Amino acid sequence: MHLPRRAFLRTSGAALLTLSTPAFALEKVMPAAGAARSGVRSLKFENIHTGEKLAADYFLNGAYQPQAMQAINHVLRDYRTGDVHTMDPKLMDLLFDMHGQLETDAAFQVISGYRSSQTNGMLHERSSGVASKSLHMQGMAIDIRVPGRSLVNVHQTALKMGRGGVGMYPTSNFVHVDVGRVRQWSGT
Ligand SMILES: [Zn+2]
User: Fold this and answer.
1) How far is 182 from 163, CA to CA, in rounded Å?
2) Dist. CA 19 → ligand 1 center (Å)
3) Rounded Cα–Cα distance for residues 148 and 73 (Å)
4) How much is the pLDDT for 15?
């Protein structure tokens, strides 16, 4: 990939890394706990299906960082089919704000990010809890849990923010959040 040198320098700090394992690598690239650098939006994910971890400064210097957003799209891909889809930046901002509200430094554990129509169709067949026109298919939804924070806490926080759909799945132990219209429901 050819990038003008200046552009490369500007973005090289953005997509920090995707790694399949060690926790120390994740820590290394993140700012010290609690040090919210002004204007920088960062997210940390751990995909429970692939084991991949990502820490990314996805917004800085007043702009979404393409390289970091691509890394996010990759870690949130449909792990069943390998399909990668653009995730909605509004969803990333929702997660960033939620992370702040939860006052945690833990990575979001990802149960489901993007779903291809093939995967969503299969899940819909199996479970009444999966909508046939799920916002997961548009990169607008994610199913998460947060280590060190109760599901109830995560759920309440998402509801309080009131920025989209919120689904509670206590048996499966995750909360669905999306940037569609504001609504709420419970699953299993
Ligand atoms: Zn969901």
Assistant:
1) 6
2) 24
3) 25
4) 45
Q: What is the pLDDT of residues 156-173, one digit of tens each?
A: 999 999 999 999 999 999
Residue 151's domain comprises 5-24+39-186
- Render pLDDT for 110-154 as a digit per residue (tens, 0 to 9): 999 999 999 999 999 998 888 888 999 999 999 999 999 999 999
Tokens matching residue 168? 């509670």
Within a domain: 30: no
65-76 pLDDT tens trace? 999 999 999 999
Residue 16 lies in a domain: yes
Is the torsion defined by CA of 178, 182, 66, 106 positive or negative?
negative
CA 109 to ligand 1 centroid distance, Å? 13
pTM, two decimal places? 0.81
Residue ranges with CB less than 5 Å from ion ligand 1: 141, 143, 176
**How many A from CA of 1 to the centre of ligand 1?**
34
